[in-house]
Protein: Smr domain-containing protein
Amino acid sequence: MGNTSSSADEDNNSTLPFSSGSSLRSRILIEAKSLRTEAEQLMFQAKAVSEQSQIAYRSGHKSEAKILSIKKINLYRQMNEKNQQAAELIFKHFNQDRPNNVIDLHGLYVEEALQYLQKKLDECRSKNKSQLIIITGIGNNSQDKIAKIKPKVENFARQNHLKMISYSGHVVIDLTETNHQNTNGCIIL
Structure:
């Protein structure tokens, strides 16, 4: 009876940087942080219900286990909804004044960041942009001060055969060229 949904405690960048700006922007980040906290509470509840479900199942109370399992699924669904709402607020906050070929992934969980990156990459390609600048940060707001998003963005670029230049805190993807792989797995520039 494992979790089939993403959990809020894996590969996240949960501390939101509060930069100077209007009070509206600060309220948006406070709301996003509140949604993240609600999602985390729902995750803890879902894990507890999952344990109860497993205990009930092992004790032979299969109908009770099924009810608890359904409750767990609903809690994870609610958690994912809260995280999605938070991600939308965070993304809009950090990207509303950016040029079309720049994306800022601060404050997002890794999987959310990669989803937004794919959308932005598709948008830049459709608008024939020559490059995409991806602001990843250096991990100052991550647990243990270790960057989580940047290595995944670099891996994303390699897997998609994109030419990139990596800098401290950001990555630039050249959209004028695409690396091609031959059948031996070698990259041809």
Remarks:
- Residues 23-95 form one domain.
